[in-house]
Amino acid sequence: MNPDIERVLVTEAEIAQSVKKLGQEISQDYQGRKPLVIGILKGSVIFMSDLVRQMSVDLELDFMAVSSYGASTESSGVVKIIKDLDRVVEGRDLIIVEDIVDTGRTLAYLKQLLANRNAASIKIVALLNKESRREVAIQADYIGFEIDDLFVVGYGMDYSDQYRGLPYIGVLKEDVYK
């Protein structure tokens, strides 16, 4: 285990089992449709890669990069689009893939933005959900794990662009980010 990690919150095996279940559930819901799966960079990349390999429906991929944190550990509340989609979403079924739903501000903003672009439907899949931190009324349609208000890294999630490659989700020691 990485020395900066206080404890493992979700093991590699637990993640794999949850991603498989989510992939099967989404595949069942999208049978006969061709959704556009949108990964929110950078945190969702590993989760999204594993998720789409568990999905049995025809799909397309695209990515958005957004920021509401900057170099801080707290959201500024201002969502900035750094990279927009390459594809037109009008009339498409969209699945937004996010690593974690925290305050909900970013996802609420993105969902409204994509709705304004006339998407046929918009669903959200999140590996982690921190309901206790929610500031905006938004809910993921598919959730891997509910977690408490902890500072987590690994499996794509980072602190200062580190720890993304950890195969598990760990609680970062407070003295690392304070």
Automatic annotation (TrEMBL):
Q: Which GO terms describe its molecular function?
A: guanine phosphoribosyltransferase activity; hypoxanthine phosphoribosyltransferase activity; magnesium ion binding; nucleotide binding
Q: State where the protein is found.
A: Cytoplasm
EC number(s) reported in the record: 2.4.2.8
Reactions this protein catalyses: GMP + diphosphate = guanine + 5-phospho-alpha-D-ribose 1-diphosphate; IMP + diphosphate = hypoxanthine + 5-phospho-alpha-D-ribose 1-diphosphate
Q: Which domain of life is it from?
A: Bacteria
Keywords assigned by UniProt, alphabetized: Cytoplasm, Glycosyltransferase, Magnesium, Metal-binding, Nucleotide-binding, Purine salvage, Transferase
Q: Which Pfam families match?
A: Pribosyltran
SUPFAM superfamilies (UniProt xref): PRTase-like
Q: Its Gene Ontology biological processes?
A: GMP salvage; guanine salvage; hypoxanthine metabolic process; IMP salvage; purine ribonucleoside salvage
The protein's matches in CDD domains, at most eight in alphabetical order, are given as: PRTases_typeI
Question: Which EC main class describes this enzyme?
Answer: transferase
Asked if the Swiss-Prot or TrEMBL record annotates the protein with the keyword rRNA-binding, the reply is no
Look up the record and report any one GO term of the cellular component aspect: cytosol
**UniProt cross-references to InterPro entries, sorted A to Z:** HGPRT, Hxn_phspho_trans, PRTase-like, PRTase_dom
Under the heading Gene3D superfamilies, the entry gives: 3.40.50.2020
Which pathway does the record list? Purine metabolism; GMP biosynthesis via salvage pathway; GMP from guanine: step 1/1; Purine metabolism; IMP biosynthesis via salvage pathway; IMP from hypoxanthine: step 1/1
According to its UniProt record, which cofactors does this protein need? Mg(2+)
Task of the protein? Purine salvage pathway enzyme that catalyzes the transfer of the ribosyl-5-phosphate group from 5-phospho-alpha-D-ribose 1-diphosphate (PRPP) to the N9 position of the 6-oxopurines hypoxanthine and guanine to form the corresponding ribonucleotides IMP (inosine 5'-monophosphate) and GMP (guanosine 5'-monophosphate), with the release of PPi.
Q: Which protein family is it in?
A: Belongs to the purine/pyrimidine phosphoribosyltransferase family.
PANTHER family found in the cross-reference section: HYPOXANTHINE PHOSPHORIBOSYLTRANSFERASE (PTHR43340:SF1), HYPOXANTHINE-GUANINE PHOSPHORIBOSYLTRANSFERASE (PTHR43340)
What name is this protein filed under? Hypoxanthine phosphoribosyltransferase
The organism named in the record is Aerococcus urinaehominis
